[in-house]
Design a protein that fits this description.
CATH architecture: 3-Layer(aba) Sandwich
Number of domains: 1
Number of helices: 12
CATH superfamily: Alpha/Beta hydrolase fold, catalytic domain
Helix content: 40-55%
Shape: globular
Number of strands: 8
Distance between the termini: 57 Å
Strand content: 15-25%
Length: about 300
């Protein structure tokens, strides 16, 4: 009986994952800089949204499956989406400082998207992509940007729960790390934030129907395609954000309207860490909390609905 259960579980895991094919919404690349690309998902309407994805993940979590795609839903709502895909970070990115990504790469991507659209943009960032975006606006100004939305974005890093306790300068000797920080190690760290979640995940797989198994498989396949964090940038990011909590101190000068979207079961960026934006942002700020976890909100209908309602 146990042997049969293990065999069945193995098939449930490996067969659907092998068939996972995310990133299928029609689009084309309009800009490249190194490994970074801006992908344009055309609605050819009068509204546009630029999206800064996390440097440490592949972009396809926002286009995972038909019917469970943020970009698909936004395009259907008449919004052109310009999505920054940072691409794989190779060894030649190891010594690139944080400013290279926050100021130069992100700045050029926004500027190229504005020119392509032919007008001002609203911008959004997911997870670390949102932190980079907030920092970019604080450091470089908001010319051509009408408003900013932040999805599961850490602003108060000291409110990040267990992750903040782990990334304490007394316990995390970040300067002893060499080379790029491996995606596999990052994925393991996130898993250990909530160990029982791994057990519940496989139980849900066994109990789920065919549609759920397909979604589960795509999420697992996406999770296995993490991107290494460039070494110098990673060390600077940890010191500035988790050690010194410095980003939140620089956002008061940003005066455009902002929206913070958090997930109620997010163990990586709890709502308190995200919604701290209200306390430090210089412009009018709204908040909304969606049902789901850090990744789960990217495959539900709540996120694109909230963004589509926010983009004027």
């Amino acid at each position: 009986m146990l042997h049969r259960t293990i065999d069945t579980l193995g098939w449930l895991v490996t067969d659907p994952i092998g068939k996972a094919r995310p990133g299928r919404s029609p689009h084309r690349v309009i800009h490249r800089q190194g490994s970074a690309q801006v992908r344009w998902f055309p609605a050819e309407g009068k509204r546009a949204l630029f999206v800064s994805m996390p440097l440490i993940n592949t972009w396809t979590i926002w286009d995972l499956l038909p019917g469970r795609s943020v970009v698909e839903a936004l395009v259907q709502a008449g919004i052109d989406v310009y999505l920054l895909d940072w691409g794989p970070q190779h060894a030649d990115a190891e010594d690139r400082p944080l400013a290279h990504f926050v100021d130069e790469v992100l700045g050029r991507a926004i500027a190229r998207s504005r020119r392509h659209f032919g007008g001002d943009l609203n911008v959004a960032g997911y997870c670390v992509g949102g932190t980079f975006l907030a920092w970019h606006l604080a450091r470089n100004g908001t010319e051509g940007v009408s408003g900013a939305a932040f999805v599961a974005t850490p602003i108060d890093f000291h409110a990040s729960g267990r992750l903040a306790r782990w990334a304490d300068p007394e316990h995390f000797p970040v300067d002893t790390l060499h080379g790029n920080f491996p995606a596999e190690r990052m994925r393991a760290s996130f898993a250990w934030l909530r160990p029982m979640g791994q057990v519940k995940k496989y139980k849900a797989l066994v109990d789920g129907d065919a549609d759920f198994r397909e979604l589960w498989a795509h999420l697992e396949a996406w999770s296995a395609t993490g991107v290494d964090f460039p070494g110098a940038c990673y060390r600077e990011y940890v010191r500035a954000c988790y050690f010194d909590n410095r980003v939140r101190d620089e956002l008061g000068a940003v005066g455009i309207p902002a929206l913070s979207i958090a997930a109620d079961r997010d163990h990586i960026v709890p709502p308190a860490a995200a919604h701290d934006l209200v306390q430090v942002w210089g412009g009018p700020t709204a908040t909304t909390t969606l049902r789901g976890g850090h990744v789960g909100i990217c495959v539900g209908s709540g996120l694109p609905t909230a963004l589509a309602a926010w983009v004027p």
